[in-house]
Amino acid sequence: MKKILSIIALSLLGTSSFGQAVEEGNVIIDAYYGFPNLYTSVFKATYANSGTEIGLKIGGLGPLGGRVEYMLADKIGLGVDVGLNSSFVRYQEESGSETYDYDFLTSKFGVMATFNWHFVESSDNLDAYAMFGAGYGNRSFTFTSTDPDYIESSIESLIPVAMRIGAGMRYFFTDNIGVNLALGFGQGGLVNAGISAKF
Fold first, then answer.
1. CB–CB of 179/171 below 8 Å?
2. Would you say 171 and 195 are in contact if contact means Cβ atoms under 8 Å apart?
3. What is the DSSP letter of 120?
4. What is the pLDDT of residue 2?
5. What class is the 24-198 domain?
6. Which among 144, 148, 138 is positioned nearest to 105, based on CA atoms?
7. Which one of 21, 42, 143, 186 has the fewest CB atoms closer than 10 angstroms to its CB?
8. What is the reported pTM?
9. Taking the domains of the chain in order of start, what are their residue ranges?
């Protein structure tokens, strides 16, 4: 009896150990939102104790984005990562009897080619991978005001490059739908998470 139970257990373990969440030919789509928005955090720290602005507002969007990956082999995937983030500072200042609006906006748009190495092979639900990406990334800075003496300006990146190195994972609740989490440096924030779809 022990022999039969051992054979059944080994058979089940053997069968499950060869399952994997993603495989050659799969297309995976991720939507994500990241943290932190570095520029928004810096603006909040910079203006926290200044006290000279009226109606100060600081905010931002993202980092947010989407990824599409095609599995060339069971462990190797190539893809595209598109990301966006923005931050703003808005306030007013009095000059004599006049009050003027001041706006500062910075935003970045990036598109990267990505290379992923998938290193978990023994789970039907969990996909874990190391990732490297590089491509185009342009950050712009715009300064505007209602002050007639203010010189408005706009600046863009001198070197429009986007990069990312990190690791990520996906957990699929069904054959096609799951969630994702990634840690890394570069486009997408230190941490990003979202939903995934596999086809």
1. yes
2. no
3. -
4. 53
5. mainly beta
6. 144
7. 42
8. 0.82
9. 24-198
